[in-house]
């Protein structure tokens, strides 16, 4: 209960249209949003990359030079910050994520820990998008982990369902990775775990020994009581424009800074202080800050 809370800002995500929502796209925009979140208490920036061509900022990019420009800009704006780079990609071709990992060598990277039917349905009964599989078989996960080990990158396992949470302990036992296990309980995807405080309270029992856990909560104002429960249970906290556009009041957030300030309030109400970047590195077993 008294462990300091590591705050992560999920800066931008994928596919959200920057013409409709205040998501950053360019390196300068990403750095400015990261600085606001850093000043509010975020010690980790979870980074997705956007296409830099005019009019295409809603699309992802796996250009290693885009990755370098974005990461360099964030590090310059936020001295000591921990970079957590996305690797999520559908299909067997993972050359883009691997090239970005090797180019920027972030301290941490997300590793999707299992497959999921990624679904959403409208009130009309029509699919919000064509049903798809977010495929993450073990051989794909191992290939990601091998490059992370090669580049001294800490894996953060994103878990969309209970079976995926339980799988991470098996990955550790099988020798697929080393170091401090870190699991991220992703709640709020329509075909995954719901954003539910009672379910959240059950999940830590299936963690590997010495694991660190956090929650990613997707939704509107209803996510904030579950963020509070995360803080009370000793989990680490994540939010940002990738996950929500709404503050606890129900008002739309103007950017990432106010969302991270609200997370810090959750931690302090639970009697926990906010971890500095150096304290986050120590807790996760990361290398010292790059110079």
Main β-sheet: number of strands, strand sense, barrel status?
A: 8 strands, parallel, barrel
* C-alpha end-to-end distance: 33 Å
Q: CATH superfamily assignment?
A: Aldolase class I
Q: Specify the CATH class.
A: Alpha Beta
% residues in beta strands: 15-25%
Large-scale geometry = globular
Question: How many DSSP-defined strands?
Answer: 10
Residues in helix, %: 25-40%
Radius of gyration: 17 Å
Q: Give the helix tally.
A: 9
Strand order of the largest sheet: 1-2-3-4-7-8-9-10
Question: From the 3D coordinates, which CATH architecture would you assign?
Answer: Alpha-Beta Barrel
Helix/strand-derived category reads: alpha/beta
Any overview of this molecule?
With 291 residues, the chain is an alpha/beta fold. The protein has one domain (7-284): TIM Barrel (Alpha-Beta Barrel). It is built from nine helices and ten strands. The strands form two sheets. Strands 1-2-3-4-7-8-9-10 form an eight-stranded parallel β-barrel, surrounded by seven helices. It has a two-stranded antiparallel ribbon with strand order 5-6. The longest helix has 14 residues, at 27-40. It is globular.
């Amino acid at each position: 209960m008294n462990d300091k809370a590591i705050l992560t800002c999920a800066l931008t995500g994928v596919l959200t249209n920057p013409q409709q929502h205040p998501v950053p796209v360019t390196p300068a925009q990403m750095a400015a949003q990261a600085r606001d979140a850093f000043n509010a208490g975020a010690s980790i920036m979870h980074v997705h990359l956007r296409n830099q061509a005019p009019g295409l900022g809603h699309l992802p990019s796996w250009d290693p030079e885009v990755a370098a420009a974005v990461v360099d800009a964030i590090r310059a704006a936020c001295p000591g910050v921990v970079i957590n780079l996305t690797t999520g990609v559908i299909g067997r071709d993972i050359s883009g994520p691997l090239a970005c990992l090797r180019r920027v060598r972030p301290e941490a990277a997300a590793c999707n820990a299992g497959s999921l039917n990624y679904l959403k349905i409208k009130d009309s009964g029509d699919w919000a998008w064509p049903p798809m599989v977010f495929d993450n078989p073990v051989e794909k996960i191992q290939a990601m982990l091998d490059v992370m080990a090669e580049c001294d990158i800490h894996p953060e396992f994103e878990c969309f369902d209970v079976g995926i949470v339980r799988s991470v302990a098996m990955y550790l036992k099988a020798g697929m990775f080393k170091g401090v296990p870190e699991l991220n309980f992703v709640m709020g995807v329509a075909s995954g775990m719901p954003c539910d405080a009672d379910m959240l309270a059950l999940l830590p029992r299936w963690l590997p020994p010495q694991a660190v856990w956090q929650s990613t909560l997707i939704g509107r104002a209803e996510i904030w009581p579950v963020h509070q429960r995360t803080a009370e249970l000793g989990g680490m906290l994540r939010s940002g424009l990738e996950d929500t556009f709404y503050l606890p009041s129900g008002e739309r957030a103007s950017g990432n800074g106010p969302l991270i300030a609200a997370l810090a309030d959750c931690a302090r109400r639970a009697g926990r202080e906010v971890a500095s970047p150096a304290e986050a590195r120590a807790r996760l077993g990361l290398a010292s800050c790059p110079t």
